[in-house]
Amino acid sequence: MPATDRLPRSVRIGYGSGSVATGAFGTVPGLMLLPYLTDSLGIAALAAGFIVFLPKAWDVILNPIAGRISDRTEDPRGPRRPWLLKAGIALSATFALLFAAPEMATGLEALWVLVLFLACASAYAFFQVPYVAMPAELTSSYDERTRLMTWRVALLAFTIMLAGATAPAIRDAVGGRDGYRVMGVVMAAIILVGVLGAYFGTRRAPVNAPLPGAGSLRDQLRIVATAHDFRWLLTCFVIQALATGCILAGVDYLASDVLGKDGATTILFVCFVGPALVLTPAWAAIGTRIGKKRGYTYSSLILAAGALLIVSAQSVPAAAVYLAVGLVGVGYAGCQVFPMAMLPDAAAVDARRTGSNRAGVYTGVWTAAETLGLALGPAIFALVLAIGGYRSSTDNDDVIQPDSALNAITLGISVLPAVLILLSLIWLRRYTLDAAEVDETVSA
Length: 444
Known about the structure:
The protein has one domain (9-208, 217-443): MFS general substrate transporter like domains (Growth Hormone, Chain: A). The protein contains 17 helices and two strands. The chain has helices at 9-16, 18-40, 45-71, 81-98, 106-133, 135-138, 142-174, 176-201, 217-225, 228-259, 264-290, 292-309, 318-354, 359-387, 403-413, 415-428, 435-443; strands at residues 211-212, 356-357.
């Protein structure tokens, strides 16, 4: 079916429901896996950071391959949808086992988490890359892609709030390692709901996929690397993913060690995602009025400002910290809407100019870089913890953290991500694609 300018609402919702899967997997390990390793299994912070990082580093290699494979997939359902179903089911199954390590020697427990997280990451690559590639093929409209991303980011924000708020609540309600096991099964079920929603919800979606690009994967990557606007946008986004990874990794530590309040992790996530749920359509409207690049810049500045305010967490009431996190959520919503709407513009411009479909390669590189940023974030945060003298423990230990560790937590979740966000804007300034150029290329 040929691509159309405006998509049915059912297709927008169906496509957006895939964010239930990506949001749950993107949020829960980033929030819960490092504390699980350091505070439940008793693994040292540096070793835990390595376990969290390695599977994501593997995805950096795997994602472009997954994109190339999906580009060349021939199926009556389209090149992307078969992968949503197969890889999505595998992701749900392996995630259910991730937090279910049986009681063994500490080294064997660490190996269990590493192997299962590698399996999760591999399945996720073959789900996420085809999923992110789809918008470039669903519609040729610059503004319709923003509308499509509005649904995606709204559902993503909802899932982040649902998963981020309920995962620690389930863990705390059940308690100990059993709490992590139950939480893992519940989150796996949520992932499966998103997978099935995306697969069945896009069954009537129009698809206009140019022929796969000629040449090897290396040739395709070399061509993609010459796309200057894509490169600037990607660099900005991956630095921001690094900042987001630091924030996610620090939330549970901020709640338990700095604020010292029961249920604070859940409150922080509600404060973070609540504004995003309300303001995602507003960011989309702002982007239509002033352009995606300017909207992305403004939302980045708001996110950085909110992060900087968190630096006072040790000396201000908890309510002030919650408000600062809410400001982070306002900016974060825009920082998801705009780059994800700008990516298919770059891929579609390339496809229209060349007649070759490299959307999968573009999104493979994109998701690989995003994955690397989100993986490096917790790893760097773990390094900050180690430098600050953070004391790992098991469920049966009651450890009091030194002031240096509390300072490390606070700086790692505030100043560090704020500096990274501001640094990323250097590359965003170089991005040049706008509505006129994208629409001109499409109509040519």
